[in-house]
Amino acid sequence: MVMGSNSVSNAFFFPVLLLLLSFGVSSAQLSSNYYASTCPTALSVIRNVVKNAVVKEHRMGASLLRLHFHDCFVNACSLSLSLSLSLSLSQIKFACIYKANIMNTDTKLESGCDASVLLDDTSSFTGEKTAGPNKDSLRGFDVIDTIKTQLESVCPGVVSCADILAVTARDSVVLLGGPTWAVQLGRRDSTTASLSTANSDLPHPFMDLSDLISTFSNKGLTAKEMAALSGSHTIGQAGCTTFRARIYNDTSIDSLFATSLKTNCPITGGDANLSSLDITTPLLFDNAYFKNLATNKGLLHSDQQLFSGGSTDSLVTTYTTNPAAFFSDFASAIVKMGNLGALTGNSGQIRTSCRKIN
Known about the structure:
It is built from 16 helices and two strands. By secondary structure, the protein is mainly alpha-helical.
């Protein structure tokens, strides 16, 4: 029997995948002490700039965390849910390499947490800053510029913009009372970006639970990791356009909560008006976000979907009563997200300016 080309590819893919993975993938790996000898002051430089920025404006902590998320979620290699959930990080990376180079798909390896979100538009290039989920809402670029300038003065051409984003996210969470984690380092910066992928791959505030689960699983993240990462909405603010439909149309919302928001977010006008994602402790990274969901006080439709009679209700309940579990799961999930699709070795470059390629 003659098999189709796709069948041949799949039949060849899995045995080769399993065989080679048994010996491990020979590629550059990330490490928490990557700059120990090449730029030993890197982490302290980043920490000091972030601290000054967050003390000056507490909201900046949420903005820097969001930058890291919006960077990592664009162009990360997509695999089927069943395959992505059964593989380790190194195996996922190999699978992406296989898809791109052997199966001749359009999978991109210059992707994921690669600082593509920081690239400015030019006359011949359109970056990701003007994508729908990013336009007029991403902030903190000046903080990243300050960090990069200081690092270039002490360790020129060493610390990547992608690593700066990963560390600033961790430091911001810690400064606002959240968990800490060992940031894996050694990422390199992309030389391109994708406006279309930023528009299509980033989750949006109008998604239902099934869409959220699918969007995160496409990046190799489980529903549990999606719920934990959504807990980042315990800090930060959102514009009226992202929650107007919820407070006027949704039924799964506390009526007094909805009424309290309508003054700042009328049916027409006030599109740029902001409200806190967490009405209880908006300046603290804690588990109040999940407590809000349990009482139908999630600001965004997508937030409340985590506690709407679906498969993630039990996770919300757990995080409501066990903040340590939330902190632990969040830390593990953001490390995993930060590793997916990272450029290492000779891929990409170390940008001198985070806003443009060298």
